[in-house]
Write a structure and sequence with these properties.
The chain has a five-stranded parallel sheet with strand order 2-1-3-4-5, sandwiched between helices. It is of the alpha/beta class. It is 56% helix and 7% strand.
């Protein structure tokens, strides 16, 4: 078996006994105290730690605590070794993450069997974990691909570069990351930053239904044309809501919020529903600013591109509608990180 076992015991005799029991089937490493064992685990790949409870410097319980602090206890199975039979001590080591407890004097057959079983169990768990991670990555890759294809179809019809979708996604993620740091009540969104970023790519999906002559009109839209243009929000939301199979998926729910409400404004003067303040989902609020910033700093059929400084001035002084003051503060804080997104194009 190609496994590395770290035997940690201050007694050389005990280490030699365990090495003899385990034989030549394993790659054996040794540590004479807890601190040495911790240093080895920082540098080497260890498959199993056999750990003496009682040692004069750093004892086994302390090692377990430090392994928890280092967040490696879940990756390295620990078999405790001791002559102590106190149930409180044994339970304490289990509570700290040990997977087994072997008492001295050693029973050769028991020690060997427990070590092999533990190694095989953890190897199987690692394999299953890797399989799940690969499946998740593949699913995410496919999701990203389909969202990218659909959003680029929208951009193609809209006469805009596919960069708009990528810019909005990147700005959304930067804004969210900084906004969460500044506002602890939104910490729950931390795990969804990537999902919201991906969902932002579908903010204009409803424009598929808008006539091309309106989408790409170089001049100002008439009132009737603008009313028709505004329907892309409700149409996009309805298109997403029709996906019954995936209605519980966070990606679809965020995409729905964003498509429906990314043109709402904090003072209630947006569309399609005139929502005000925190009635507007934070996902849509963030994408709204990202969308406006990129529209201002990019060339369109009806306008030239504004500079970063001019775009910031227009957004902060309400020339593009009213936004959440906390989000505007966040925008100011991370504006140069957002500006740098465009340097990679």
């Amino acid at each position: 078996m190609d496994y590395t076992i770290l035997i940690t015991d201050d007694s050389e005799i005990n280490r030699e006994i365990l090495k003899k029991i385990l034989g030549d089937e394993f790659n054996i490493m040794e540590a004479t105290d807890g601190e040495e064992a911790l240093e080895i685990m920082k540098k080497e790949s260890i498959d199993l730690l056999m750990l003496d409870v009682v040692m004069p410097k750093t004892d086994g319980v302390t090692v377990l605590k430090k392994m928890n602090e280092m967040d490696i206890i879940k990756d390295i199975p620990v078999v405790m070794i001791s002559t102590e039979l106190s149930s409180d001590l044994i339970n304490n080591t289990y509570d700290l993450g040990a997977v087994d407890y072997i008492t001295r004097p050693f029973d050769v057959k028991v020690v060997k069997k427990r070590v092999v079983n533990t190694l095989l169990l953890y190897a199987k768990q690692k394999k299953l974990t890797m399989m799940v991670e690969e499946q998740v990555k593949e699913r995410e890759k496919n999701n990203n691909m389909m969202v990218s294809i659909l959003s680029n179809i929208v951009e193609f019809r809209n006469g805009e570069s596919g960069l708009h979708v990528r810019h909005v996604k990147s700005i959304t993620e930067v804004l969210l990351r900084n906004f969460i740091e500044m506002n602890s009540k939104y910490e729950y969104l931390e795990k969804d930053i990537h999902i919201i970023g991906m969902a932002s790519s579908l903010h204009d999906v409803g424009k598929i239904s808008i006539p091309e002559e309106i989408l790409n009109k170089p001049g100002k839209l008439t009132n009737e044309e603008f009313d028709l243009m505004k329907t892309h929000t409700t149409i996009g939301a309805q298109m997403l809501a029709n996906n019954e199979t995936y209605k519980e998926e966070p990606l679809l729910n965020y995409a729905y919020e964003i498509a429906f409400w990314h043109h709402e404004r904090y003072d209630g003067r947006g569309y399609p529903q005139g929502l005000k303040g925190d009635e507007i989902p934070i996902s849509a609020q963030v994408v709204s600013i990202a969308d406006v910033y990129d529209a201002l700093t990019s060339e369109r059929v009806y306008k030239a591109a504004f500079s970063h400084e001019k775009a910031m001035d227009m957004i902060l002084h309400g020339e593009c509608g009213t936004f959440n003051p906390a989000l505007l503060e966040c925008l100011e804080k991370c504006q140069f990180e957002i500006r740098d997104i465009y340097k990679t194009d």
